[in-house]
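Need residues for this backbone.
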């Protein structure tokens, strides 16, 4: 059973986290950087737990040093995504990893990503949109210039604002300045919550940052009232089951809460997060959902429809990918 050719809409990926290890090794070699410690002998990324994953991720990012590097990254990532049937992808991009949060530098990186995305669309029929994310463990002060980059470049390609990084650092409300700025500019919002934090983290994120979508959100399952609230308010969860299973944020596939959340009427979508880091692809996610929960074409169609409605893009793009 493979779902490789089924069309897919993916809302939650981290651009640098989609970089194949061989791609990062190649950049490191070109630049004579020694990052051999972040790889296993078999060439895959090596890390012990989520906090170490974030360190390895940032070490991999040190090889991405120019707009041209990001151009090549976007081309490589979209070719791979398209090979798994992905027709529309949203990806988190962070000015912190593109010139350190400087707006002028950010514009150059962004132009390179946009031209790569346009070429990939022509070549593979896949549409990419970018969601600018601040990095939670870099702190609230670093989130402000990130929000400035976001509001200044919000448009056809940059279509939303969010937050990634270490979920257990601070509280959501600490980042309200950045989220307020993005919301006032009309940007749709999402934030990682309830992957490591409990239902209280999801509830505080909704209350204090007023986001439309939650990255992960799976720990909401521990609070029946919160689950009902998510369903009533139409909050969309960007669920990444393979990531959760690999990082042991949840139990194994058969214990994963996606089915229970869906049964409770919560809008759930399916994404890979950082596919080469978590040994997954969109094909693998769909295959495992079919095998574990018996999902078939009607279920996958519903998931795609939910993702299409929750996508941070304009209606013309929505019509094109529907
Ligand atoms: N979760 C949170 N922050 C991240 C991730 C992730 O999977 N990848 C890169 N930054
Ligand atoms: Zn994520």
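Answer:
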């Amino acid at each position: 059973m493979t779902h490789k050719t089924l069309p897919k809409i993916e809302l939650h990926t981290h651009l640098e986290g989609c970089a194949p290890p061989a791609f990062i090794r190649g950049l490191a070699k070109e630049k004579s950087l020694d990052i051999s410690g972040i790889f296993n002998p078999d060439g895959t990324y090596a890390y012990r737990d989520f906090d170490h994953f974030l360190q390895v991720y940032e070490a991999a990012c040190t090889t991405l040093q120019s707009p041209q590097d990001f151009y090549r990254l976007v081309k490589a990532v979209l070719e791979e995504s398209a090979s798994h049937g992905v027709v529309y992808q949203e990806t988190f991009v962070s000015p912190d990893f593109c010139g350190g949060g400087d707006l002028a530098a950010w514009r150059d990186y962004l132009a390179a990503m946009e031209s790569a995305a346009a070429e990939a669309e022509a070549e593979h029929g896949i549409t990419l949109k970018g969601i600018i994310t601040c990095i939670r463990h870099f702190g609230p002060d670093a989130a402000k210039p990130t929000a400035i980059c976001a509001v200044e470049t919000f448009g056809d390609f940059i279509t939303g604002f969010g937050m990634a990084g270490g979920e257990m650092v601070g509280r959501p409300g600490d980042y309200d300045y950045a989220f307020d700025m993005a919301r006032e500019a009309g940007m749709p919002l999402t934030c990682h919550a309830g992957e490591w934090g409990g239902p209280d983290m999801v509830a505080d994120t909704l209350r204090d940052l007023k986001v439309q979508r939650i990255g992960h959100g799976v720990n909401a399952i521990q609070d029946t009232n919160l689950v009902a609230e998510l369903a009533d308010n139409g909050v969309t969860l960007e669920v990444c089951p393979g990531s959760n299973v690999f990082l042991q944020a949840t139990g194994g596939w058969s214990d994963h809460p996606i089915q229970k959340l869906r049964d409770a009427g919560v809008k759930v979508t399916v994404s890979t997060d950082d596919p080469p880091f978590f040994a997954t692809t969109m094909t693998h996610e769909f295959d495992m959902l079919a095998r574990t929960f018996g999902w078939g074409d009607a279920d996958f169609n519903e998931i795609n429809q939910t993702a299409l409605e929750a996508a941070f893009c304009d209606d013309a793009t929505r019509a094109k990918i529907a």
